[in-house]
């Protein structure tokens, strides 16, 4: 059918533009945050692009939901704005005729969102956690950037002037720490990484001094050394058992339930239903008066999306805190949205009904004017006297 083909073509065109815009904005914000973490020594500079890719996969479900909703809203709004909707209505179509072609796009999109939220996002979160854990497990010397003061494990603050390419030698070392509440400062001309028989890594510094305490106190000590060793790391495997719920596969969430995992499962399974319902909700929300503009309905639509996401977050927190079970929290929001869709469709289809909100509001205004002794100026309504 010409109508369905034209509608799908417009939807795909709008969706590509919307997704490109949303993805660019998201990647920009992610890049700023990740670069800030890299500059602060929280992640390795070499992992920036990898983390951006994993973060993008994690945000894909939300981006696709917003893309589908905004695309339908833009297409319907444009049809009203350009008076194209009048032509379709004159051809015998109604607003419900939009449901079938919209569903032909919304259903596959919801399947993609479900696959991403249930399978891909947990994998991306697991990879991000492993990248960060590997960096946390690296010895301190690998985290130090030459020419910068950086805070390391145990509250130590270190500065080195030069680091060799293989990360085994450093020049002009400064380290500040606290031992039993007393400040200690170590300065050395050079140092190198050595591994003992047990696989433990040490930074062996040479030609330096150590200062313990404050110069103004009586217990201040200064020690000069030829060699001084500091433990960097022990030979221990990475601990991968302490995974967050976001990084766990869905089968683990089902087999080993607890409030936190139930909340995560609720979030994952709710996203595809949310995407499907929001695309249907955008059909009646897309109505605009061609002579007025389309700003108002866009604002209302975006507010509804924000409210929907916030309600889902609140339900997730209620499940995590044990206030609601998974099953009691999984259906009310989607049922309310489905009822809203039906009400909005009735609002747009039953425009001649005496119980239509606009008609009822017009009658109420006329009654109010008559009580004040004023004449009703709404000529579209016949008010009984």
TrEMBL record:
**Keyword Transport annotated:** yes
* Membrane topology note: Multi-pass membrane protein
Give one Pfam family, short name only: LptF_LptG
Name the UniProt key words of this record, in alphabetical order. Cell inner membrane, Cell membrane, Membrane, Transmembrane, Transmembrane helix, Transport
CC per GO annotation: ATP-binding cassette (ABC) transporter complex
Location in the cell reads:
Cell inner membrane
- Supply the name of the protein: Lipopolysaccharide export system permease protein LptF
Q: Which organism is it from?
A: Undibacterium fentianense
């Amino acid at each position: 059918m010409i109508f369905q083909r034209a509608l799908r073509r417009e939807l795909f065109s709008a969706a590509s533009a919307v997704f490109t815009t949303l993805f660019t904005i998201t990647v920009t914000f992610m890049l700023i945050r990740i670069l800030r973490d890299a500059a602060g020594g929280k992640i390795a500079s070499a992992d920036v692009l990898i983390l951006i890719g994993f973060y993008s996969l994690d945000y894909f479900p939300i981006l696709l939901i917003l893309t589908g909703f905004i695309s339908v809203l833009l297409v319907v709004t444009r049809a009203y704005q350009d008076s194209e909707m009048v032509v379709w209505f004159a051809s015998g179509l109604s607003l419900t005729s939009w449901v079938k072609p919209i569903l032909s796009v919304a259903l596959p999109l919801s399947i993609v969102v479900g696959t991403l939220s249930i399978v891909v996002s947990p994998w991306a979160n697991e990879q991000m956690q492993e990248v960060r854990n590997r960096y946390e497990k690296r010895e301190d010397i690998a985290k130090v950037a030459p020419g910068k003061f950086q805070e390391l494990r145990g509250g130590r603050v270190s500065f080195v002037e030069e680091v060799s390419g293989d990360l085994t030698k450093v020049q002009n070392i400064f380290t500040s720490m606290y031992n039993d509440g007393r400040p200690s400062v170590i300065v050395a001309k050079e140092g190198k990484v050595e591994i003992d028989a047990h696989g433990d890594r040490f930074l062996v510094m040479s030609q330096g001094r150590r200062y313990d305490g404050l110069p103004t106190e009586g217990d201040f000590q200064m020690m000069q050394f030829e060699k001084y060793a500091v433990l960097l790391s022990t030979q221990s495997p990475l601990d991968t058992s302490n995974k967050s719920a976001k990084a766990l596969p869905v089968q683990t969430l089902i087999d080993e339930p607890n409030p936190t995992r139930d909340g995560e499962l609720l979030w994952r399974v709710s996203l595809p239903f949310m995407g499907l319902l929001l695309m249907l909700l955008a059909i009646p929300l897309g109505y605009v008066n061609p002579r007025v503009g389309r700003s108002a309905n866009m604002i209302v639509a975006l507010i509804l999306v924000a409210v929907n996401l916030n309600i889902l977050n609140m339900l997730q927190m209620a499940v995590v805190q044990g206030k609601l079970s998974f099953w009691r929290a999984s259906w009310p929001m989607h049922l309310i949205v489905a009822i809203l869709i039906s009400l909005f469709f009735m609002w747009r289809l039953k425009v001649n009904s005496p119980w239509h909100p606009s008609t009822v509001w017009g009658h109420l205004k006329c009654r109010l004017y008559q009580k004040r002794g004023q004449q009703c100026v709404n000529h579209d309504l016949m008010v009984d006297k």
